[in-house]
Structures are given as C-alpha cells and as structure tokens.
Specification:
Number of helices: 1
Distance between the termini: 18 Å
Radius of gyration: 11 Å
Structural class: alpha+beta
Mean pLDDT: 96
Order of helices and strands: HEEE
Strand content: 35-45%
C-alpha cells in the first residue's frame, strides 16, 4: 500500500472504525487495525523506512 492515510479515510467513510490507531514500527512501516461493519478486525500496513 502506498498511501496509508487515504486508505484509512476510505475505511472510515464506508463505516469502518479504528480498532488500534496508526502507529509506527520504527524504521520499518506504519500500521493500524480497523473493524469493518460486520465486526471483523483487519490491519493495514505501509512500508516506510522513515517511520518513527
């Protein structure tokens, strides 16, 4: 994934909710978890060596 923030906006606009907010995996990536409208939890991940 190349643009974490735009994907997060789409998730929220479609009724999803934040389960664990965007956070850095230092030196590796951005990551966060969401809940869809049926209660399923899933994560998104954006590689970024500058994440801190």
């Amino acid at each position: 994934m190349e643009d974490y923030d735009s994907i997060e906006a789409k998730i929220l606009n479609l009724g999803g909710k934040v389960a664990l907010a965007k956070h850095a995996l230092p030196g590796m990536a951005w990551q966060g978890y969401y809940m869809d409208t049926e209660g399923n939890i899933f994560g998104i991940h954006q590689p970024d060596q500058n994440a801190k």
